[in-house]
Amino acid sequence: MTGTSQELFDFIAAALAKFVASEGEDFHLLEGRQRELGFTFSFPVKQSSIASGTLIKWTKGFSIDETVGADVVAELSSALDRQGLDMKVTALVNDTIGTLAGGRYDDNDVVAAVILGTGTNAAYVERANAIPKWHGLLPKSGDMVINMEWGNFRSSHLPLTEFDQALDAESLNPGEQIYEKLISGMYLGEIVRRVLLKMTEEASLFGDDIPPKLKIPFILRTPHMSMMHHDTSPDLRTVGAKLKDVLGIQGTSLKTRRLVVDVCDIVAKRGARLAAAGIHGVLKKLGRDIPGSDKHRTVIAMDGGLYEHYTIFSETLENTLREMLGEEVSSSVVIKLANDGSGIGAALLAAAHSQYLEAEV
Question: Is 350 inside a domain boundary?
Fold first, then answer.
């Protein structure tokens, strides 16, 4: 994540080589054909064609300066050559766009895709004539897919606490991805850690001494937070075990454990409610937030481990969206989990742009 560009792309190419080597006997390419690849790349890219794009900036803790401004398909293609793999990238696909493509292939009522995992992003289908920055011929369908890169949204209306401001200031990308830092899986556990540290410093939450591990950034990951938050045992045994195993804090009282769960609850529910507000904004832009006679189904394809595995987060998101849309509209809005939607969508888009399509017609 912080090495050289060549190390990163060689790592990806080596994983692909391993995968190809594991293919069964029943898979044989036709003579003289290359393997074709959909390259899911979940970072902001200036995309110049279906199979090329330059990296605008890294997010989610990646920081390899020399890759910024480079064509990531060319970088991967060089790495594939170094591995001796005869493979061609036929589609460069943002993971959110992949989720939208896979979702739409499966269900024609899908109008948007949202990723809520380590990072967050959204994509939707817009009328091309509603895009001010569009130049050139309009696509035949009249529609255009928009990759929002909404993780980078910031506004004076976003309520930032001292914990959010400190996390941002000390991050690898200060001033950027502010919305992502409030709602995504990479950051929720870290916000909880910062709140617990402040409570320890100011109110001796875990006794008079500050546990050394509590001072380590990102030591408390969102899966740890989720396990504590979902603890239903009478003595909050899981909370006690996680505090001990992850933060080295022993012998916590039930009262202290309850306070820890309360912090998890506040941070997770705030993130989920803000994420629901983002989805509501997309539906509003599409005119799908208005009650009326048109009862057309509106489907949002959702991917990402945070939404899939953090039940309280996903339930809060759905309840908040219902609250914002009202009962009538929300009865026709469906959030559909598209497990690995981005990978499937990238494969579909790669197949749709295969160099061999003409040969098979």
Answer: no
Mind spelling out the 3-state secondary structure of 291-352?
CCCCCCCEEEEEECHHHHHCHHHHHHHHHHHHHHHCHHHHCCEEEEECCCHHHHHHHHHHHH
* pLDDT over threshold 80, residue 268: yes
> What three-state secondary structure class fits 11?
helix
Q: Specify the pairing of strand 120-127 against strand 110-116.
A: antiparallel
How many beta carbons lie within 10 A of that of residue 332, not counting itself?
A: 16
Domain with 328 in it: 95-339
Question: Of 207, 194, 221, which is closest to residue 249 (Cα–Cα)?
Answer: 207
Domain contains 344 = no
User: Do 43 and 176 sit in the same domain of this protein?
Assistant: no
Residue 351 lies in a domain: no
Number of domains in the chain: 2
Instruction: State pTM to two decimals.
Output: 0.89
361: pLDDT strictly greater than 60 = no
Q: Please tell me whether residues 63 and 148 are part of one structural domain.
A: no
Cβ-based burial of 119 (10 A; exposed 0-12, middle 13-18, buried ≥19): buried
Q: Evaluate whether residue 357 is within a structural domain.
A: no
Backbone angles phi, psi at 139, to 5 degrees: -65, 155
Listed in order, strand segments (DSSP E) in 117-273 are 120-127, 143-147
Report the percent of the chain where pLDDT is more than 90.
78
Are residue 185 and residue 283 in the same domain, yes or no?
A: yes
Query: For residue 335, how far is the Cα from the chain centroid?
Result: 16
What's the N-to-C CA distance of the chain in angstroms? Answer: 43
**Measured between alpha carbons, how far is 248 from 207 in angstroms, rounded to an integer?**
13
In this prediction, residue 293 carries a pLDDT of 61
Dihedrals φ, ψ of 288, to 5°?
Answer: -100, 15
116 shares a domain with 64: no
